[in-house]
Specification:
Keywords: Transferase. GO terms for molecular function: glutathione transferase activity; maleylacetoacetate isomerase activity. InterPro entries: Glutathione-S-Trfase_C_sf, Glutathione_S-Trfase_N, Thioredoxin-like_sf. This is Glutathione S-transferase. Pfam families: GST_N_2. By secondary structure, the protein is α+β, with helices and mostly antiparallel strands. It folds into two domains: about 5-80, 3-Layer(aba) Sandwich (Glutaredoxin), CATH 3.40.30.10; about 85-195, Glutathione S-transferase Yfyf (Class Pi), Chain A, domain 2, CATH 1.20.1050.10. The chain is built from ten helices and four strands. It has a four-stranded mixed sheet with strand order 2-1-3-4, with helices on one face. The radius of gyration is 17 Å and the shape is globular. The relative contact order is 0.16.
């Protein structure tokens, strides 16, 4: 049994869980994982037993419990410093980009929730399209400044934070620039991500309300 256990939501839907899962994988820190099926009787009690927030993800470190995806990523970065850009200025930009994703882009979260099995070309609300355009502009700027293939050239926590939203561009056929499309393809061809996606396609748990968004 590993000293680390990551409690996550369903692979198909839980964007917040995907982020630290990817970071722990890239850090090569051995960890166990436990999936908590969302929106079923008793699921909230399970979450509240792990943290006062009652949300996933939660990382158990020996007998301590660490909630919040960014806090878990920072925990991993203390053990494996190369998870952030080495240059101090680039790290500051990466933190800014992560914080923007961590707290912003409410429309794309609401109108295009992560749903890896979803494929649709339905017309999306304008505020969602505005968020998508802003995200692409941010990606294009960072990719051009740091010469890709990742936002800061080498893979970092910033890429983990934008991976769930990258899947939304595919699931909901959101418009994107050529450079952003190449970046999305790079993220979604990652071996660790492909393992997560395989598990998402294999699980049979569904969230009907999420599946019904913008049908």
């Amino acid at each position: 049994m590993s000293a680390l256990t990551l409690f996550i939501g369903n692979y198909n839907y839980s964007s917040w869980s995907l982020r630290p899962w990817m970071v722990l994988r890239k850090a090569e820190l051995p960890f166990d994982e436990e999936v908590i099926d969302l929106d079923i009787p008793g699921y909230k009690d399970k979450l509240l037993a792990l943290s006062d927030e009652g949300t996933v993800p939660v990382l158990r470190v020996n007998d301590d419990y660490l909630p919040d995806s960014l806090a878990i990523c920072e925990f991993a970065a203390k053990a494996v410093p190369n998870l952030w850009p080495k240059d101090a200025g680039h790290k500051a930009l990466a933190l800014e980009a992560v914080e923007k994703m961590h707290t912003g882009f409410e429309a794309i979260r609401r109108e295009a929730p992560m749903n890896l099995r979803r494929r649709t070309s339905t017309k999306m609300p304008q505020d969602c399209l505005d968020d998508a355009a802003e995200i692409c502009a941010l990606w294009d700027d960072l990719l051009s400044r740091h010469d890709g293939p990742y936002l800061f050239n080498e893979w970092s926590i910033a890429d983990a934070f934008y991976m769930p939203v990258a899947t939304r561009f595919t699931s909901y056929d959101l418009p994107r620039s050529v450079r952003s499309d190449t970046y999305i393809s790079e993220l979604m061809s990652d071996e660790d991500y492909l393992e997560w996606e395989m598990r998402a396609f294999a699980e049979d748990h569904v969230l009907p309300e999420t599946d019904a968004v913008n049908r």
